[in-house]
Amino acid sequence: MVLASASPRRKELLEQAGYNLIILPADVDETLPDGISPEDAVKYLANKKAEACAKFILKEKPELSDLPIVAADTVVYKDEIMGKPMDRQDAKRMIQTISGTFHHVATGVAIILPASGKKDVFCDVTKVYCKNLSDDDVEAYLDTDEPYDKAGAYAIQGIFGKYIERFEGRYDTVVGLPVEPITEVLNRFNK
Ligand SMILES: Cc1cn([C@H]2C[C@H](O)[C@@H](COP(=O)(O)OP(=O)(O)OP(=O)(O)O)O2)c(=O)[nH]c1=O
Fold it and tell me: What pairing do the DSSP bridges indicate for beta strands 164-168 and 80-82?
């Protein structure tokens, strides 16, 4: 398949599941329409990334148009939508918001088969419970490189994993790509 993503986590999740990938990241404007829900936001952006990639393939690489394109977007939400933090202060605010309580992580996925025009866009949500972090814990975490390219300023699969108490739903949805539902869509496309 074609993975329209620059995220090493998404690549790893699909490779672990045995998929062969061609990586063609889509660079799109990630500005969201005002008042959009988190679920609609991740579907909107995943769709935008997959559509941009499909357009590129049909124009520049038609030999790839029989391969399904997969694109995704992940946000954390707790009252507000949290994408990637702009800076340390923004990351601090996000970590303080999720500390000692639960939040949700939504990953939107868009799958397009350019040759046939088949398309599926869906969203999967996991509820995550985070331990209470002391001020020192927060500052020490912000000193690492981990928060700055992650939605909600943390990685469940990384250093921050020790602060995750439990979760309800799929783990890979939190990391950035729910593999099993993607496989189901691809199987349906092949029928
Ligand atoms: C919450 C959480 C997010 N993340 C990551 C997944 C995504 O890579 C990132 C959210 O940013 P996204 O904008 O969804 O994706 P991206 O910019 O990394 O990649 P692309 O748009 O090219 O597909 O946060 C984790 O790795 N672990 C986590 O626990």
Answer: unpaired
Helix, strand, coil percent values for the chain (each to nearest 5): 45, 25, 30
Strands (DSSP E) found in 56-169? 69-78, 80-82, 102-113, 118-130, 164-168
C-alpha 91 to ligand 1 mean position (Å): 14
Identify the active-site residue in 73, 120, 124, 172: 73
Residue-wise pLDDT for 3-18, tens only, equals 999 999 999 999 999 9
Q: Which two tokens stand for residue 129?
A: 């419970």
| Average pLDDT score over the chain | 97
Distance in angstroms (rounded) separating the CA atoms of residues 117 and 16: 28
Q: How many domains does the chain have?
A: 1
What are 102's two structure tokens?
Answer: 């639960």
Q: In the predicted model, what is the mean pLDDT of residues 143-161?
A: 97
Does 149 qualify as catalytic in the annotation?
no
**Whether residue 191 has pLDDT greater than 80:** no
What is this structure's pTM?
Answer: 0.96
Q: What CATH number should be reported for the domain holding residue 178?
A: 3.90.950.10
Q: Which domain holds residue 185?
A: 2-190
In this predicted structure, the answer to whether residue 182 has a pLDDT above a threshold of 80 is yes
